[in-house]
Amino acid sequence: MMSTIDRAVVLHSRKYKESSLLLTLWLKDHGKLNAIARTNKKSHGIYQPFSLLNVDIKIMPAAESLANICFAECEKSFSMGSYLSQLARMYLNEVLYWLLPHDHHDAALFDSYLLVVQELVSDDITKLLRYFELQLLESLGYGFQVDYDEQHKMMNEDHYYAMAPLSAFYQTTAESGISGKYIKQLQQPVSSWDNDTLQVLQKLIRINLNACLQGRALKTRELLISYLRNQNA
């Protein structure tokens, strides 16, 4: 058993016995883990999603074992924002809950998450979500290779490419592929993408995310799609 102090966010929580919570936490320096938090009326409200916590926690050596939270305090609570931005935050938490391995440590990804959650306050969510999805795929080892295709040939903006999930791009025809000029934009900040680029590249991101999820349907994604469809009706 190892005792440590770390920054953490709550990805998922449910009641566990009368005065305890079963939490899935993401710790900045120790990754995702499951933990028991014993609560009272005063401390129960600390373990809310979209809050940055400082926790004193005892971590068991086996990944499947439950950690024990000795003490927790809220360092920062992020403002609520719009309904759509809240759905977007919930979507991020659900993606992380299912995709982050328990032994995966990435402090930079943790910081990116905090940045995105802080910025998700309005209905302008699309680029922020795509940015974080790209960071997550890269962290998991499934980032896009945009310099060379599967034949190890330099990718060309004037050529057209397709890809199988979680694989390198391969050259194809204009009728069945995506222009290399769009694919090259994966190297650029998401904030610089125009609407056409965003429409094309988010399809590629979705292909790889769906492959990582292995067909699992995300409830929050369905809620987002339904809400946006109703708004545009």
Automatic annotation (TrEMBL):
GO terms for cellular component: bacterial nucleoid. Pfam families: RecO_C, RecO_N. Keywords: DNA damage, DNA recombination, DNA repair. SUPFAM superfamilies: Nucleic acid-binding proteins. The keyword Repressor does not apply. One of its GO terms (biological process) is double-strand break repair. The keyword DNA repair applies. Residues 2-78 form the DNA replication/recombination mediator RecO N-terminal domain. InterPro entries: DNA_rep/recomb_RecO_N, NA-bd_OB-fold, RecO, RecO_C. Involved in DNA repair and RecF pathway recombination. NCBIfam families: reco. HAMAP family: RecO (MF_00201). Belongs to the RecO family. This is DNA repair protein RecO. It comes from Cysteiniphilum litorale.
